[in-house]
Amino acid sequence: MIASNETLMTLEQACHSPLLTSGRRGKGVPYSTIYRWVSRGVKGAVLETVVIGGIRFVSNDSITRFIQEATDARRYRPRAQGFTLRTPTKRRRDSEAAIKRLKPKGI
Question: Is the pLDDT of residue 76 over 80?
């Protein structure tokens, strides 16, 4: 949640925020990217905004929190023990084997 003491900027101003341009050789982030972060987010992380008078605002702190959440969401997390991912080929073979076992039973 954006606190009342945070400095607000419009989404257009956020496109050229130093937090977002430092790794892009000074080039701004496209407005459509900022809007996507606000509306859909990235891997469950959504950019916090506040609407005042029909205009959507963000803060540098909300951008920092979003970057941290998006980074944390992309980190590798090992699967639970005992869980194995079947490949499409393995899934197809298992399905064919199950059909062969069930066919004599009339199922």
Answer: no
Handedness of CA 85, 45, 33, 54 (dihedral sign): positive
Sheet with 50-52: list strands edge to edge.
8-10, 55-59, 50-52
Which H or E element spans position 92? helix 88-102
Give the chain's domain count.
Answer: 1
Find the Cα–Cα–Cα–Cα dihedral 71, 73, 77, 82, rounded to 10°.
-170
Structure tokens, 69 = 């959440």
CA 43 – CA 37 distance, rounded (Å): 10
Query: What domain range includes position 24?
Result: 8-74
State the pTM of this model: 0.67
- With residue 8 as reference, give the H or E element that holds it: strand 8-10
